[in-house]
Amino acid sequence: MARQSISFTKPNDEWLKNQVDNKEYSSKSELVNDLNRQAKSQQVQIDWIKAKLERAENSGFTSDSKAQILKQSKDLLNG
Question: What does the pLDDT look like over 19-51, one tens digit per residue?
């Protein structure tokens, strides 16, 4: 595993220490690695949502009313 030296602001360092002291994590390194994994997972979700939004925006707009859109959605769900 690569070894790094990083600095934290005082409030962030205190928070990290509290997590370790409360036995949530065995070390600050474990916590930072877990936060990094969570950030990566969130980025995957953000990228997926962004792609869906871009695809929807590129598909064009509709002149259908809200009621028509709702009916179409319900029809799709109900088969």
Answer: 999 999 999 999 999 999 999 999 999 999 999
Distances from the Cα of 76 to the Cα of 10, 35, 56, 63, 68, angstroms: 53, 39, 17, 19, 12
pTM beyond 0.85: the answer is no
What is the secondary structure of 12-25 as a DSSP string? Answer: HHHHHHHHHHTTS-
User: Taking every pair of C-alpha atoms in the chain, what is the biggest distance, in angstroms?
Assistant: 58
**How does residue 54 score in pLDDT terms, banded at 50, 70 and 90?**
very high
**Pairwise CA distance, residues 58 & 79, whole Å:** 26
**Domains in the chain: boundaries:** 8-58
Distance CA 27, CA 61 (A): 52
